[in-house]
From TrEMBL:
Region entry Disordered, spans: 315-449
Function: GTPase activator for the nuclear Ras-related regulatory protein RAP-1A (KREV-1), converting it to the putatively inactive GDP-bound state.
Basic and acidic residues: compositionally biased ranges: 383-394
Gene name of the encoded protein: rap1gap2a
GO cellular component: cytoplasm; plasma membrane
Extent of Pro residues compositional bias: 429-440
Keyword check for Chaperone: no
Biased composition range(s): Gly residues: 325-339
Protein's UniProt name: RAP1 GTPase activating protein 2a
GO molecular function list: GTPase activator activity
BP term (GO), one: regulation of small GTPase mediated signal transduction
Domain Rap-GAP residue range list: 52-266
Length: 449
């Protein structure tokens, strides 16, 4: 299907015998010879099909309004035609063939420009649904009439494109009787033997010269018996007459301008929405609400990548923070009693302090505090032994289910560290074990450090 400002062309192309699928410009060339040098862009907007369907529906009209004029014998002017207020039994019988008599107040169907709220266009009218098409009739005798105001009823019927003229007796009718820029076709119906079981209607059609022929064709003679067949023929003739009038010179120009404007609006809207889908433009408020207030497809992809990168960085940083090692583990208690912070497994980390010279006045970089039990010193210890003993830390006790591990090498070792897997609400303090106390005979006064 190819849509242009002039027309819409659609056809079925057989791919039999074609080795390679033709491109879009080639398909357009097959549909229309004038389609050369065109540039096609893909529609990326998810709801683009709805916009295209709305554009196509402007050519499909499912609502119609037709005028119905009652002409008495000898009437030859529009003032006389629109001045009739009585409805004869024959005219009422004809109206019952067209449709149903309905009340206009609060009417919910197609109103055809009539007032359904304040009664300014009368209290009732004739309405019907024919082959899924709504039809409202502007009946001249049912429209409000003010003496001397010849335009009051013409205001509605004069703006219709097709009108049906009912006659009880043979009377000449000339389309120029009603001066109108819109009325282009008339269907004349003359009743014979009205209000009887043998009622028939004689039908004739007249239209302006620039209106092409339209069906269904009139039989010869064009006389119909009252019944469903006559109703179907008459309503079909009225609908086809209006569709044919749109192809006249005047309506064709109006339709061409309307079609071009609608097609330009469709192109601009599809281009704007496609750009917004890629994140290169601004979407409408409805599309923002539908997409959760976010941007286009490209923006959503970028946002997802940023969230994933942030999650990866957080995961790596958390892993590094929990890795055991020098400066990376959980510090042990410096009070001489370690705090086991997990009930599962204890890991051991060894820290080797820098070796200090005997002559160096610097102190150990590790700050010590006295534990729950003061250390015992022997009077026979040398200053270097005292220094070595002071640098040693008590072994940290893990839960009772774990084996106590310690090292007794000459180099001091740091206490064992329990990984911080589960924190307890109330920590339990375990006293450290004293390191190799000297004999009781050499114990000095116990002075806490």
């Amino acid at each position: 299907m190819l849509r242009s400002r002039a027309k819409t062309v659609h056809d079925r192309i057989s791919l039999a015998g074609i080795n390679q699928l033709p491109s879009v410009p080639q398909i357009a060339k097959l549909l229309c010879d004038d389609a050369t040098g065109l540039k096609f862009n893909p529609v990326l907007y998810p709801r683009g099909s709805q916009l295209i369907v709305a554009y196509d529906e402007h050519e499909v009209n499912n609502t119609f309004k037709f005028g119905v004029v009652y002409q008495k014998f000898g009437q030859t002017s529009e003032e006389e035609l629109f001045g009739n207020n009585e409805e004869t039994p024959a005219f009422k019988e004809f109206l019952s063939v067209l449709g149903d008599n309905i009340e206009l107040q609060d009417f919910k169907g197609f109103r055809g420009g009539l007032d359904v709220s304040h009664g300014q266009t009368g209290s009732e009218s004739v309405y019907t649904v024919f082959r899924q098409r709504e039809i409202m009739f502007h009946v001249s005798t049912k429209l409000p009439f003010t003496e001397g105001d010849i335009q009051q009823r013409k205001r509605h019927i004069g703006n219709d494109i097709v009108a049906a003229v009912f006659q009880e007796e043979a009377t000449p009718f000339v389309p120029d009787m009603i001066a109108s820029n819109f009325l282009h076709a008339y269907v004349l119906v003359q009743a014979e033997n009205p209000c009887t079981d043998h009622t028939t209607y004689k039908v004739s059609v007249t239209a302006r010269e620039d209106v092409p022929p339209f069906g269904p064709p009139l039989p010869n003679p064009a006389v119909f018996k009252k019944g469903p067949e006559f109703r179907d023929f008459l309503l079909t003739k009225l609908i086809n007459a209006e569709n044919a009038c749109y192809k006249s010179d005047k309506f064709a120009k109006l339709e061409g301008r309307t079609r071009a404007a609608l097609l330009d609006n469709l192109h601009d809207e599809l281009h704007r929405q496609s750009q917004a889908t890629l994140g290169l433009g601004q979407a409408g408020e409805d599309d923002k609400l539908e997409n959760g207030g976010h941007g286009g497809l490209l923006e959503s992809f970028k946002r997802a990548m940023r969230v994933r990168s942030h999650s990866m960085e957080t995961m790596v940083g958390s892993h590094r923070h929990r890795s055991p090692g020098v400066g990376g583990g959980v510090p042990a208690s410096l009070s001489g009693g370690g705090l086991p912070q997990s009930t599962s497994e204890c890991t051991k980390s060894t820290f080797t302090p820098p070796v200090l010279s005997a002559k160096s006045p610097l102190k150990s970089p590790v700050k010590r505090r006295s534990g729950l039990f003061p250390r015992l010193h022997s009077s026979t210890d040398t200053p270097s032994d005292k220094h070595t003993r002071s640098d040693q830390k008590p072994v940290e006790i893990c839960p009772l289910s774990q084996e106590v591990r310690s090292e007794t090498s000459s180099n001091p070792s740091s206490p064992e560290i329990c990984p911080n897997k589960e924190r307890r609400a109330t920590p339990l303090y375990h006293p450290p074990l004293p390191l190799a106390p000297p004999p009781a005979s050499t114990v000095r006064d116990q002075v806490p450090l």
